[in-house]
Amino acid sequence: xxxxxxxxxxxxxxxxxxxxxxxxxxxxxxxxxxxxxxxxxxxxxxxxxxxxxxxxxxxxxxxxxxxxxxxxxxxxxxxxxxxxxxxxxxxxxxxxxxxxxxxxxxxxxxxxxxxxxxxxxxxxxxxxxxxxxxxxxxxxxxxxxxxxxxxxxxxxxxxxxxxxxxxxxxxxxxxxxxxxxxxxxxxxxxxxxxxxxxxxxxxxxxxxxxxxxxxxxxxxxxxxxxxxxxxxxxxxxxxxxxxxxxxxxxxxxxxxxxxxxxxxxxxxxxxxxxxxxxxxxxxxxxxxxxxxxxxxxxxxxxxxxxxxxxxxxxxxxxxxxxxxxxxxxxxxxxxxxxxxxxxxxxxxxxxxxxxxxxxxxxxxxxxxxxxxxxxxxxxxxxxxxxxxxxxxxxxxxxxxxxxxxxxxxxxxxxxxxxxxxxxxxxxxxxxxxxxxxxxxxxxxxxxxxxxxxxxxxxxxxxxxxxxxxxxxxxxxxxxxxx
Length: 482
Description:
mainly alpha, Amino acid/polyamine transporter I, AA/rel_permease1
């Protein structure tokens, strides 16, 4: 096996030159759109789905601390993203940053794991969307058969009390298809739809917090940290850590913002504002919503498809229940939209470097979007959303994301040493300590992953290495030599 090219780096000047020579992407995104793009991705399944799962199964009321732990890790990493995105206003995000600092093989492994983050993450959020659609329709008297709203092979209970095997989660498939077509149609149009949906979503979340605080029973917060039951990761401090790894999927939106750099009007200013602003706003809202949720409903009852909807039902406010269900649908929709968007930009960057087939980098001559990549991604995400439970998907997303975050922190440290003279419109304070804290925080969260998740991750990495050496290495090395 030849190792030629595995450590080869791309210089920033070459990356910028290639971006300028490639088919142009229209610069249509301002700072507000970028912040809203981040909030759209971050605030989705986390508030409306995974908060309940993490509280009921792992952390109890201390799920609040799980969000704090995950948010702290993301704050360190987010600063690193802000510097690199402002310095490299091109598509590709973590993949591109790693290529300039750690080399070709490291960049491939990051790109390979970003498939877990964006594509599998999009599937996980689509499954959550399906749960809220079912709840919303139920409020107006429309009941969907669980055979068509659950993952393939799941045993479900029908309306007559009989048991059956689910065929596929069709609503999850439908939302992925619709958003894929929207993204193929153009970035400007997608951003406008996203901005509107995020504004509506924030209004609903604030309404839930403002009303829900009056229905909190402090008895539901006790014990705040349920004792561990003898199994690592099930309550106790290890449960808080495990809960943090589960809800970590809720924070991945801030790094998908970095994929907007090539389409931002003023990326040197707008990218740091977008990344840090979206992360800060979302973290505060997460903590507030988690506190209200576990205060209204006993934590052991929150392992349901729509936990926020359950909390509103307990309040006995019919009007708010429908509003929350609609807000959740809108909120989760924006998360899927941004994840699908981010994956297509990553694949387009990898295709330009020869690590992916050329069709992933094809830009539609009229629509100015990577349309082939977007459609293929939509097909894969829809397939996973139809057949896989949200718990399995969310843990896979967590491990892939954490690996990528470790790499981007390492990339910043190494790039500071390799090319200290580069102009950096935004500089992370306290280097190397801040990125090192980001690395340690992410590694700490990875410790909380289950052994099964680690096995899946190892298998995924082995497959990625096989694909790299069989297809990508020789083509990418040849591109570097051109």
